[in-house]
Design goal:
The protein is of the alpha+beta class. It is built from 10 helices and 15 strands.
């Protein structure tokens, strides 16, 4: 690829990454709003059990608190509303709940024994308090005029308040200001910003994705033409003696004992480039799918690029921890060059239009299950901390990773790569790349469920021998005719 095309691919990949992030964020906001808001439009917290033997419980560090310098510009919070509900544990008790400025609450509860909520955890019983000592008994809260929102009485009490700039605190206490408070409390917030923000992010994300696709299509336009530039495209005539229209081959190139210990570091430049290339690969595969759906043909320029990405990936994987088959550093190119790891795929002719819609999610499901074993998947380990179960996600290297680790240890201590192990690893990698090519719509040939091991692709099975028909006459010079 020329420098101009490389630049377009990089810009397209970056734009695609930004577009995907924006679109995902916008869609996520819209889905979150639709699924988490209640009938009144509030996002509500779990019900927390709050209790104290003091006179009040305050939440000065909750989300209800908005800090701003009154003398400075403050945002308009008119579109943000909060709702706080408290239900006394004692059905016969009366509870008060109110919101006021922090200064007024501090003056009202000055010298009064009460608890301040310092932390709310993810579970309803994970509440931590800070005790404020005092001996004074407060006046009944209903007699105070500084509350911006308040409610008191028996049963559940609920207040709503449009958030304003300032420092605020919520207070829960007995309606008669007696000591001892025990309630079940929830807090909620409602905002009108999520819908326009979500739609805006989604629209900008889609526009960025459209621009990215345009850049990538421009970068690959004409890449399949046979010019003096090396092209990353297979030719059906080049793979006439293969069992599958894709060749994944590797030549064991005497890897050293210990270089594999730092290959992860040496490959960082490749990882960065491949991350961008695979973004472009995914976007262009989507474009190719639309084209196939209407024409039955895979655009040649896109096929050339995608085949080159697979080729580059296989060289890096072969040098790295999918095979450790060579210590020769992989080149930075999409073209098919002289290297111990080679990949080629026959450019398809007419493709099935209908298979485009079901290849990647329905037909490939059995292979996805196999790939989960070969390549690896996440494993969740659960442990108990107190009364709470916590999980840790651990990445598994899969069967290929385990076998390559065995090969690496053998190299380290013996300097030799076990050939039987190498053949097995090659077969596993060959399976992976066949599935990737099929899911990427680059062939209609369903990947076989077999392990074609060895460094070279196996030849196709021989055709069945001709069946002699009774009474057939022998043709002179025909070696298959009965004698």
């Amino acid at each position: 690829m020329t420098a101009t095309r490389v630049t377009l691919v990089v810009l397209g990949a970056i734009a695609g990454l930004i577009g995907l992030a924006l679109a995902a964020a916008g869609l996520g906001l819209l889905v979150f709003q639709a699924s988490q808001q209640d009938a009144d439009g509030y996002f509500t917290s779990p019900s927390y059990g709050l209790a104290t033997d003091g006179y009040a419980i305050t939440g000065e560090d909750l989300d209800l608190r908005v800090e701003a310098d009154p003398a400075a510009w403050a945002p308009d919070f008119g579109n943000l509303s909060t709702r706080v509900s408290a239900t006394p544990v004692d059905a016969t008790g009366e509870v008060f709940i109110g919101i006021a400025t922090k200064d007024n609450v501090d003056r009202y509860l000055g010298g009064v024994r009460h608890d301040v909520i310092s932390r709310l955890g993810g579970q309803p019983d994970e509440v931590a308090y800070s005790r404020i000592a005092g001996e004074r008994m407060p006046e009944p809260p209903d007699t105070q005029s500084f509350w911006v929102a308040s409610s008191s009485g028996a049963g559940e009490q609920t207040i709503t308040w449009d958030v304003q700039a300032g420092q605020w605190a919520v207070v829960v206490m007995a309606a008669d200001a007696s000591p001892g408070v025990a309630v079940d409390a929830t807090a909620g917030v409602s905002t009108t910003l999520l819908t326009p923000v979500g739609i805006g992010l989604l629209v900008f994300g889609v526009l960025a994705l459209g621009g990215a696709i345009a850049l990538l299509v421009a970068a690959t336009a004409g890449a399949g033409e046979r010019t003096g530039e090396p092209i990353a495209v297979g030719d059906a005539a080049r793979l006439p003696d293969r069992a599958y229209p894709m060749a994944v081959e590797g030549r064991l190139d005497e890897p050293g004992r210990g270089l594999w210990l730092i290959k992860w570091l040496l490959l960082i430049p490749h990882f960065i480039v491949l991350a961008l290339l695979w973004i472009a690969f995914a976007l262009l595969t989507f474009v190719a799918g639309i084209v196939i759906l209407f024409t039955g043909r895979y655009p040649r320029g896109i096929f050339a690029f995608n085949a080159g990405v697979l080729r580059w990936t296989w060289r890096v994987a072969y040098y790295g921890y999918s095979a450790l088959g060579t210590d020769r550093y992989p080149p930075f190119t999409l073209a098919d060059v002289d290297y111990p790891a080679r990949l080629d795929i026959a450019e398809p002719g007419q493709l099935s239009r209908g298979l485009v819609l079901i290849k990647w999610w329905l037909l490939a499901i059995p292979h996805y299950i196999v790939l989960a074993v070969l390549v690896g998947n996440g494993v969740t380990w659960t442990f108990t901390e107190g009364a709470v179960d916590r999980g840790v996600q651990v990445a598994s290297g899969g069967l290929i990773g385990v076998l390559v680790l065995v090969a690496a240890i053998a190299l380290l201590f013996t300097g030799r790569y076990p050939m039987g192990l190498f053949d097995f690893v090659m077969g596993l990698n060959r399976w992976v790349y066949r599935v990737v090519a099929y899911v990427a719509l680059m062939t209609d040939d369903y990947p076989p469920f077999r392990l074609d091991g060895g460094g070279s692709e196996p030849a196709p099975p021989p055709p069945p021998p001709p069946v002699d028909e009774p009474g057939a006459a022998a043709v002179p010079g025909d070696r298959t005719a009965p004698v």
